[in-house]
Amino acid sequence: MPAEDKKQVAHRALVDRVLTGQGAASPEDRARAFGNADGPAPLQALIGKVAMTPSQVTDADFAAAKAAGFSEDQLFELVVCAAVGQSTRQYEAGLAALAEGEAG
């Protein structure tokens, strides 16, 4: 198996685990975080920052999401989903650019 294939298999396994593995956060919340899709306002503020501007995440973002009823375990899982989702989009864009370069 070529190295790229092993990397893609490992990546798919990671994505599958964060989206469908056991956890404190619901699979629906994990999928929304992974896709940086709309969710409850305090949570979406945190997830959006994790995905797009992680250096701007503050303790206040976590406090607001926690005050909205999310546990620390749920927030940890959702932050991981958001980060993996954003990195997946970047990874897939990179693979597409490489494929386009090889075809052209």
Automatic annotation (TrEMBL):
Residues 18-37 are annotated as: Disordered. InterPro entries: AhpD-like (IPR029032). It comes from the Bacteria. This is Carboxymuconolactone decarboxylase family protein. The lineage of its organism: Bacteria, Bacillati, Actinomycetota, Actinomycetes, Propionibacteriales.
